[in-house]
Amino acid sequence: MSEIDRPVVLIVDDEPEERYPFAEVLRASLNVKVVHPNAVTDDDIASADLVLVDYLLDQWPEREQLVPALRPRNGVALTGVLRAHAEADRAHNSPAFSLLSGRLNELSPDFPPEHRPHILAQGLNLEWVFPKGDQQRTVPQIETLARAMKELPRTWKHSDVEGTTSRLVKLLGLNDEMPGNRLAYEDVEKSHPPVHELSETSHGLSIVRWLLQRILPYPTFIFSDLYLAARLRIQPSKLGDALAPGGVLRKTLEPVEYSGTLAGFLGPRWWRSGVEAWIWDVTEGQPHRPEIIHRALEKLGVHDLEYVAGDYEIVCIEGTGYQPSPRLYKIDEAVRIQPDHWPPYADQAWSSIEAVKADRGLRALVIHDDVERLS
User: Fold this and answer.
1) Reduced to 3 states, what is the DSSP secondary structure of residue 347?
2) Taking the CA atoms of the chain, what radius of gyration do you get in angstroms?
């Protein structure tokens, strides 16, 4: 990729020299500029695909000489100012805005921010939040988000719903050759894509935010390895090698792996309808019989898996971060819950009875009809 084709990342930090090593790592695939907040220009904002702002801005003496309305106290406030300037410039796409901070815990005292960054970002009117100090995870995510912003169509017509939908389908990587593609189209529509919110001023940013905050973190029309394991009736801990790059099952499921914009941001994702179509095919029309699914996997050369009975099919949420458990549960071992921010079009959320009994926060989320099962 030539320099001119690379996505542009703008890092705004009150101690820019401390971000230089990190910027050098990003420069392997991105154009990166690091500036002090006092030095940000209109051209910097206009040329950026992604803007990363530090949360604490203590080393900014020029700010203290200004009236309150002109001195944003932290990175959250500063992103609001910069976003307003970006949106006012209709000649350019508005970049994505994210925090890059080692102090995210100060913004989320009630839960670990690394467990629910999409919820924290949504509450702060950001696209995402990135922690400092975790380059192994953060660098690929920043690259993926910047690339997604770079690849967004340059123009959108609010009145052209059909054309906008066509662009969305292309961004999601849907094509007529994918197994189960017709049902996939329907599943996408049921997930409330923001096709009616797009306009010349949004430049598709609402699609990126929808994917980051409402689709990728949840089991919707695409789902993670955990939910794939549940559908195949395999304990997730034994599925890793088969789904690793180059693994037998990964190669087999390649036609139904999500490859659209932001693919890989939170790990592999699989088209639900594509997986169902594949299971129907390999089981010769008997997709709900676990023993036949397992026999089909063996024939494909997928071995050393821990198969489970048909009633082990529930992915459960546990802990203050609402993280999915690495093991599957039976239905009678779990209760239905209603977490905040859980989309209505996502699969029903569950938690194990043992986890709910040990956590008051989870217990408060149990739906009324399942409360009696806790006694």
Assistant:
1) coil
2) 22
d(C-alpha 352, C-alpha 132), whole Å: 33
**CA 215, 221, 223, 227 torsion-angle sign:** positive
**What is the sign of the dihedral through the CA atoms of 185, 191, 196 and 201?**
negative
Whole-angstrom distance, CA of residue 254 vs CA of residue 250: 6
| Structure tokens, 147 | 């690339």
Please check whether residue 342 is in contact with residue 306, taking contact to mean a CB–CB distance below 8 angstroms.
no
pLDDT means over runs of 10, the chain (375 residues)? 83 96 96 97 95 96 91 95 88 87 78 72 94 91 97 70 80 90 93 73 80 96 95 87 87 95 96 97 93 92 83 82 86 92 94 93 93 91
- The DSSP bridge pattern shows strands 31-35 and 50-53 to be unpaired
Residue pLDDT, tens place only, 275-294: 999 999 999 999 989 999 99
pLDDT recorded at residue 111: 58
CATH 3.90.1200.10 fits 3-150, yes or no: no
Q: Where are the domains of the chain?
A: 3-150, 161-299, 312-374
Give start and end residues of each alpha helix (H) in the chain: 20-26, 42-47, 75-88, 117-123, 135-151, 161-171, 181-190, 205-210, 225-232, 240-243, 248-252, 272-282, 290-299, 353-358, 360-363
Determine the Cα–Cα distance for residues 202 and 263; give it in Å rounded to an integer: 21
Instruction: Please list, in sequence order, all residues whose beta carbon lies within 8 angstroms of the beta carbon of residue 324, skipping any fewer than 6 positions away.
Output: 224, 226, 315, 316, 317, 318
CA distance 167 to 203: 12
